[in-house]
């Protein structure tokens, strides 16, 4: 499972550094699907700069040493989600792009479900003008909104396992 995300990362960083020498990038940590443990994204890909004009507020949280901006967004049904933005994430293939009720002006959206267990992880966003050309996943101009409650950091999971092992011994 990590191989797929590393491949995704490899493509991302290759695109980011296409004019320079190959570089080694240390993965800062995985965020896992809370339902099944599948890799959802990595902390390196978090984008703290993209804020919705519709957010009810935002806050800084930390995953290990990484500071992450989360924002609260409400859907038309009145449900509020605390989300973080990632440049890439793992999502199952889902339906077509929607342009109505978008949280990010000029961006179409679709649901992001965990490819392993189909849990609702968040949403994918793609500019209106390029959504038709990228029917399945966002292009480099798009991004992903991940529901904070749907993921858990791998470092935290590992710390629980270590504590559990210590308590058993
Ligand atoms: Zn899952």
From TrEMBL:
<dbReference type="InterPro" id="IPR034750">
    <property type="entry name" value="CULT"/>
</dbReference>
<keyword id="KW-0732">Signal</keyword>
<feature type="signal peptide">
    <location>
        <begin position="1"/>
        <end position="18"/>
    </location>
</feature>
<feature type="domain" description="CULT">
    <location>
        <begin position="28"/>
        <end position="155"/>
    </location>
</feature>
<protein>
    <submittedName>
        <fullName>CLUMA_CG003799, isoform A</fullName>
    </submittedName>
</protein>
């Amino acid at each position: 499972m990590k191989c797929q995300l590393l491949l995704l990362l490899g493509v991302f960083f290759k695109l980011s550094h296409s004019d320079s020498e190959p570089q080694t990038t240390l993965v800062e940590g995985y965020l896992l699907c809370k339902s099944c443990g599948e890799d959802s994204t990595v902390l390196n890909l978090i984008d703290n700069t993209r804020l919705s004009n519709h957010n009810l507020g935002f806050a800084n949280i930390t995953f290990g040493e990484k500071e992450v901006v989360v924002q609260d967004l409400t859907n038309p049904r009145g449900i509020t989600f605390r989300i973080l933005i990632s440049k890439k994430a793992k999502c199952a293939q889902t339906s077509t792009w929607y342009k109505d009720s978008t949280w990010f002006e000029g961006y179409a959206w679709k649901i992001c479900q965990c490819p392993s267990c189909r849990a609702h992880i968040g949403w994918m966003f793609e500019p209106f003008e390029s959504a038709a050309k990228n029917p399945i996943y966002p292009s480099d101009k798009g991004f992903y909104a991940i529901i904070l409650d749907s993921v858990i950091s791998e470092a935290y999971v590992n710390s629980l396992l270590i504590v559990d092992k210590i308590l058993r011994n």
